[in-house]
């Protein structure tokens, strides 16, 4: 079969999820013949990851928009705080990105500051951010046919005894003055399902269509649709029920279906982008985190939008568009360029040359060591999402530790409280050794019986493998790969395990899914760095 024929065959359907691993809260946008998906990034840079497609089938990663502290400073950001639910729109020749920086979630408070930045192209340059309101999170812009623009958001209510999800709020945005004007008003208080958030408005068929997320971000999640002849309501909810949900269907591959946004193709077909999760067992832990899927939407004139069965499908018809695959990316990053590749993320600080150096040693990634695992200002962790049930990250690291305060290695990571780390360090007797350390809910476990004497070698191969619920490490001292004789629990690196409720209030949330990473710690602040020769990510 020729490549051209094969591509046409592939393009007849879309396999879900289209973005695997840590890619939640999708905002989908079409500009002419180009489609973009923007997703949440929380405490990770670059903020607001963007993927690009020509056919809704094949997607390529463009990297992220929030690449500088000028756009958002995540120093000190808590686990699963930071950037929530971005919204990407295009109006008057500019891309508009609205994003929420959520600083807290304790005792009914959110401290969600909303920002707006604009750019002439999806790759920038992005303007200095405009501070909007802090009324609630999941802010989004709606550009009406009359040229006006409106900011939507979930309206938070901190008062004891009140519903902290106080409804969907709207307020006019004046692009000439770059500020909100007029008074805000509540236009929708949601259904009995509650936890109404993630608003988007669309103008179609003479109606305003309000799409929201309800039921929370876990198993009870759903996409709710309501419509009104007037922008300010009242909004009538679809009498047939949610547009999409996985509730009551533990047999489905795709769970937690919700938080959707709509797009119309050049030929009039409609699709819904939404988040999903794939637990390893029915309603079990989701190590892959929350991912992005697409569903085809039928929208008859005069009727309501409908997804087949109102449940997420693993495979759906592709749109009537020419197939447009992208060139395959190499699984190995040789670090030959001046900047980190688009697939990498860095924790709580952008990949600036004060700690990421790709010039001093050609074809190497030099990482200057940062804080301990609990440090939230200057950690030195370069990572990528776990994108498959079985996958691995392999590297070669060169590192000369001075003492036990200096660690460089490879990790399966979730957040400051949940991780496994296999690293090169220095023992008290001066030997260079490989050690293993795990953290589960903030409780550390060392494995001194598994310490490996490197025989003075300061250049070693390291590998971490996710094999369903098991995680394994291996090393190569120049004589072939040796597996560390322990099987670790990969499911502690999951949204469900990270989340914690105390006395009915969230003490911790888990929104990111697991990552594989290259981690360097210089806990003594002694100026130590590690060189990584390459990194190979494979899905098995």
TrEMBL record:
Q: Per the database record, which ranges form the Beta-xylosidase C-terminal Concanavalin A-like domain?
A: 332-537
Is Lipoprotein found in the keyword set? no
Q: Which Gene3D superfamilies match?
A: 2.60.120.200, Glycosyl hydrolase domain, family 43
Family matches, as Pfam families = GH43_C2 (PF17851), Glyco_hydro_43 (PF04616)
Q: Which UniProt keywords apply?
A: Glycosidase, Hydrolase
Recorded superkingdom: Bacteria
Q: Does the keyword Hydrolase apply?
A: yes
Which parts of the chain are coiled coil?
none
Kindly give the CDD domains that the UniProt entry links to this protein: GH43_SXA-like (cd09000)
Q: Which PANTHER family match?
A: BETA-XYLOSIDASE, BETA-XYLOSIDASE-RELATED
What the record says about family reads:
Belongs to the glycosyl hydrolase 43 family.
Name of the protein described by the UniProt record = Xylan 1,4-beta-xylosidase
Q: Species name for this entry?
A: Micromonospora andamanensis
């Amino acid at each position: 079969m020729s490549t051209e024929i094969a591509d046409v065959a592939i393009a007849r359907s879309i396999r879900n999820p289209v973005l695997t691993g840590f890619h939640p809260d999708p905002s989908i946008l079409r500009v002419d013949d180009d489609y973009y998906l923007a997703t949440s990034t929380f405490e990770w840079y670059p903020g607001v990851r963007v993927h690009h497609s020509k056919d809704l089938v094949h997607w390529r990663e463009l990297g992220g928009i929030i690449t500088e502290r000028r756009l958002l400073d995540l120093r000190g950001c808590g686990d699963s705080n930071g950037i929530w639910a971005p919204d990407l729109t295009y109006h008057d020749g500019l891309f508009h990105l609205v994003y929420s920086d959520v600083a807290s979630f304790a005792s009914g408070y959110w401290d969600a500051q909303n920002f707006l930045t604009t750019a002439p192209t999806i790759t920038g340059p992005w303007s200095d951010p405009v501070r909007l309101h802090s009324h609630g999170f999941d802010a989004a812009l709606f550009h009406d046919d009359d040229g006006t623009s409106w900011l939507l958001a979930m309206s938070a209510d901190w008062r004891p005894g009140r519903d902290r999800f106080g409804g969907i709020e709207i307020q006019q945005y004046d692009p000439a003055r770059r500020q909100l004007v007029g008074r805000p008003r509540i236009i929708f208080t949601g259904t009995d399902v509650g936890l109404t958030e993630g608003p988007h408005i669309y103008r179609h068929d003479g109606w305003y269509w309000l799409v929201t997320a309800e039921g929370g971000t876990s198993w009870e999640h759903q996409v709710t649709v309501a419509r009104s002849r007037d922008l300010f309501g009242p909004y009538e909810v679809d009498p047939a029920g949610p547009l999409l949900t996985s509730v009551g269907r533990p047999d489905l591959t795709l769970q937690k279906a919700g938080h959707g946004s709509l797009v119309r193709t050049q030929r009039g077909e409609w699709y819904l982008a939404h988040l999903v999760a794939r637990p390893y067992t029915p309603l079990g832990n989701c190590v892959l985190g929350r991912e992005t899927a697409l569903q085809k939407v039928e929208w008859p004139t005069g009727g309501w939008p409908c997804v087949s069965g109102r449940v997420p499908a693993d495979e759906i018809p592709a749109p009537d568009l020419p197939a447009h695959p992208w060139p395959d990316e190499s699984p190995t990053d040789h670090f030959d360029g001046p900047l980190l590749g688009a697939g990498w993320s860095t924790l709580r600080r952008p990949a600036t040359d004060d700690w990421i150096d790709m010039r001093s040693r050609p074809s190497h990634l030099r990482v200057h060591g940062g804080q301990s695992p609990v440090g939230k200002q200057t950690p030195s962790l370069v990572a990528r999402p776990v994108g498959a049930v079985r996958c691995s990250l392999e590297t070669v690291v060169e590192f000369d530790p001075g003492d036990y305060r200096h660690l460089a290695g490879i990790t399966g990571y979730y957040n400051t409280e949940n991780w496994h780390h296999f690293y090169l360090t220095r023992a008290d007797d001066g030997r260079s050794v490989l050690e293993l350390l795990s953290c589960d809910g903030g409780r550390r476990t060392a494995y001194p019986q598994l310490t490996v004497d490197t025989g003075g070698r300061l250049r070693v191969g390291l590998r971490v493998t996710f094999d369903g619920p098991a995680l394994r490490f291996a090393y190569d001292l120049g004589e072939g790969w040796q597996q560390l004789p322990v099987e670790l629990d990969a499911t502690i690196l999951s949204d469900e395990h990270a989340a914690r409720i105390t006395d009915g209030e969230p003490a911790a949330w888990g929104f990111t899914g697991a990552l594989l990473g290259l981690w360097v710690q210089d806990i003594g602040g002694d100026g130590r760095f590690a060189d990584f020769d390459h990194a190979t990510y494979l899905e098995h």
